[in-house]
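User: I'm curious whether this sequence folds into something compact or stays loose and floppy. Could you predict its structure so I can see for myself?
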Amino acid sequence: LRARAQELRRRRDELRAHGELQQRTLLENEEVATSGDPGAAQPSDRAVLEWKMRNIQDLLQIFYLTGLSGKRTKHGVCFCISTAYEGTYLDSFHVDLATQPQLRVRRHSVPVFIPLEQLATKHLQTDVKRFLSALADHLNAYVGRRYQADQLQERFSGHLEGALQRNSLCNVLAFKYNTVGQGETFPF
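Assistant: Here's the prediction. I'll summarize afterward.
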């Protein structure tokens, strides 16, 4: 899984670099088209603004492919973190960030046992990307554990005796299963 994650990160970085190169090429082509002389004109404010908007839209598309998407809101930005386990999309969580007077979490749908406030205190003012990455890691871990517990209960219910017990974080499971020893079936 680590090798696959590294490969996907490498591919993401390649796509990002390729996108930035295309953006620069487009901007340079617009400059040449508007001035007729490639070295004489500076890009217009409108061209720079359009380039920045396309760049932001491309970044949002990249984030969407990695499970993160966002959109501007009246108060700031709302991010959606989509979680998955082994290629199966499971849940989405939202974090609404207010940008004024400083960056802060305004509203969210993150479960209370995920250390959102600690992550915000540690990363939000200095590195939003790291904040979102750490939060996505926590959410994916939780949703993955919950999914595995559900699959255990669903697939092996015939071998389980009684109900599967778990805590809200799904990091502690308690269950009994039947095993065969010396020709007899007994709970373990």
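Summary: The chain has a mean pLDDT of 81. The chain is about 50% helix and 25% strand.
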